[in-house]
């Protein structure tokens, strides 16, 4: 298995230009606005100060005749969650296209699959840049004001959300910029229109921040070669710098001073040193024990955590904060896990950096099914089925999704399920959540290019994750290929997926100068949690890419 490391070093472009409507006077009827210049001449407009002025930050993005308003609001009191409590809500209004909803009530109801997937896209572009310890509930709301059916609102939404957070007083280490990259006749196209995208072999979204650092990638590709894919990433990061510099100009004149905040449960050095002395060597033994599997390793770490807390309760009986001890333990656990990868060049399960876990495959499991497969990679197991039906069973798109994507119906779709027992947990089962919709859409992107477009049946592919220790969406692509072939669907070539992780070292907090790194092939769940990247990639035997995230 070949892996590669992307190093992008492009020069910064000139700053965006203020257009004629800019003004420092909010009361003179003109709008504080910047134009973001792209190399194709289709400029993005970002403005503030007109709408939703009670929000902590507000911005409007406009490309062509598509406009999105984004607001950012964050509470002033911290929550008790152990992660950034960020919520991103993107909503498509039928009124934005001059349409009336087609449901019985004639009004917008719950979020559609397209809205949820776009919300996740925006979330992944913003979440990594919140400062460590910022546990204040934050909500980003993206409101589609107008849509022209030519320019997709998702890229506009990411950039407007970046502007809203940058202009607000919410602590955030942005801005980010985002562009869509197409590939037509082997030529890169920046922010392609809907018509251009239908002719493109690549649909790549790149989000990047300053110093040409990539934050998020998402792509669908029709068997694109590796060198063309890398060329698209490099062009996207370069164009993102225009967005970043334009937002910084807007912030310089109209941005609020960032508020001060206290990281929740910030442990004092005395507690940190005590936790380290009680746990570091024991954690090293656990992470070097190659006999552990997911459950036994988690139980061993949990036992050390409980023991450390109990001992420190006795030593720090007065004013002892259990949350602070737990947070300190989690930090030391992460540092220890990452350090061992550099020291030993061996991962916690005994694999080298490039090794895949053991793979086992079965097909034709149950005769009543049109196609079925069981794919096992390490402790990740998925059961896939294929059902074939008439063209009338195709999935119909809602009116706004039809307008923005040009797709009226889908005759191939994938449904992904992740029940709680897959990770030895208890939970309620119900409609697919955001995570399940996102992972299912990602796997569907990886398989759609190999399914014939003229196949005379509707195909429903399902994937149920029975066991999970990382990379279940990529296992779905592998199992899905098997199930499609078992059902007799004439796919052009089998596709497979794998998740690549990254563990890196920097000089302090200076992310511009990487001291060392390790790329991890086929990551475990713990390597995803402790690492810096979860890069999912699907392709064919000839190094043709089908999807990435």
From TrEMBL:
Pfam families noted in UniProt: PNPase (PF03726), RNase_PH (PF01138), RNase_PH_C (PF03725)
Record-annotated membrane-spanning stretches: none
Keywords, alphabetical: RNA-binding
Biological process annotations from GO: mitochondrial mRNA catabolic process; mitochondrial RNA 3'-end processing
Record domain Polyribonucleotide nucleotidyltransferase RNA-binding: where: 270-352
Domain of life: Eukaryota
GO molecular function: 3'-5'-RNA exonuclease activity; polyribonucleotide nucleotidyltransferase activity; RNA binding
Domain Exoribonuclease phosphorolytic: 41-171, 174-238, 356-490
Cellular component terms per the entry's GO annotation: cytosol; mitochondrion
PANTHER family, per database record: POLYRIBONUCLEOTIDE NUCLEOTIDYLTRANSFERASE, POLYRIBONUCLEOTIDE NUCLEOTIDYLTRANSFERASE 1, MITOCHONDRIAL
Protein's name in the database: Uncharacterized protein
Species for this entry: Diploptera punctata
């Amino acid at each position: 298995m070949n892996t590669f490391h992307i190093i992008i070093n492009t020069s910064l472009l000139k700053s965006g230009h203020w257009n004629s409507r800019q003004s420092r006077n909010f009361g003179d009827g003109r709008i504080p606005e910047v134009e973001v210049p792209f190399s194709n001449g289709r400029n993005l407009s970002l403005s503030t100060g007109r709408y939703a002025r009670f929000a902590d930050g507000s911005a409007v993005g406009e490309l062509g005749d598509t406009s999105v308003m984004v607001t950012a609001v964050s509470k002033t009191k911290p929550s008790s969650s152990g992660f950034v409590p960020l919520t991103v809500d993107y909503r498509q209004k039928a009124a934005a296209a001059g349409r009336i909803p087609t449901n019985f009530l004639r009004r917008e109801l719950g979020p559609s699959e397209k809205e949820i997937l776009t919300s996740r896209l925006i979330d992944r572009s913003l979440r990594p840049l919140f400062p460590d310890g910022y546990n204040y509930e934050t909500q980003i709301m993206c409101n589609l004001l107008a849509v022209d059916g030519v320019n997709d609102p998702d890229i506009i939404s990411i950039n407007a959300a970046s502007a809203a957070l940058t202009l607000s007083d919410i602590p955030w280490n942005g801005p980010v910029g985002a562009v869509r990259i197409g590939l037509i006749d082997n030529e890169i196209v920046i922010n392609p229109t809907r018509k251009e995208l239908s002719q493109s072999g690549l649909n790549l979204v790149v989000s990047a921040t300053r110093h040409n650092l990539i934050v998020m990638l998402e792509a669908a590709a029709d068997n694109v070669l590796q060198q063309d894919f890398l060329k698209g990433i490099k062009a996207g990061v370069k164009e993102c710098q225009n967005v970043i510099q334009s937002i910084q100009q807007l912030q310089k004149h109209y941005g609020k001073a960032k508020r001060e905040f206290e990281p929740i449960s910030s442990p004092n050095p005395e507690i940190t040193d005590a936790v380290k002395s009680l746990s570091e060597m024991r954690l090293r033994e656990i992470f070097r024990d190659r006999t552990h599997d997911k459950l036994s390793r988690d139980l061993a770490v949990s036992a050390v955590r409980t023991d450390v807390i109990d001992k420190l309760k006795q030593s720090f009986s007065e004013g002892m904060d259990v949350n602070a001890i737990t947070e300190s333990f989690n930090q030391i656990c992460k540092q220890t896990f990452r350090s061992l990868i550099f020291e030993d060049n061996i991962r916690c399960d005994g694999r080298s950096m490039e090794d895949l876990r053991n793979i086992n495959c079965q097909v034709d499991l149950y005769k009543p099914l049109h196609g079925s497969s069981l794919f096992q990679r390490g402790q990740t197991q998925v059961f896939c089925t294929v059902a074939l039906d008439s063209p009338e069973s195709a999935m119909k798109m809602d009116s706004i999704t039809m307008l923005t994507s040009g797709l009226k119906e889908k005759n191939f779709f994938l449904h992904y399920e992740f029940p709680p027992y897959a990770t030895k947990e208890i939970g309620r089962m119900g409609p697919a959540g955001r995570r399940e919709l996102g992972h299912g859409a990602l796997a569907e992107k990886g398989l759609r290019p190999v399914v014939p477009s003229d196949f005379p049946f509707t195909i429903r592919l399902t994937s149920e994750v029975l066991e999970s220790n990382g990379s279940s969406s990529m296992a779905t692509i592998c199992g899905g290929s098997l199930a499609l072939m078992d059902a007799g669907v004439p796919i052009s070539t089998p596709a497979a997926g794998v998740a690549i992780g990254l563990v890196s070292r920097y000089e302090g907090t200076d992310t511009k100068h990487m001291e060392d790194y390790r790329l991890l092939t086929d990551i475990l769940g713990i390597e995803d949690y402790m690492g810096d990247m979860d890069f999912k990639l699907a392709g064919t035997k000839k190094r043709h890419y089908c999807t990435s995230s």
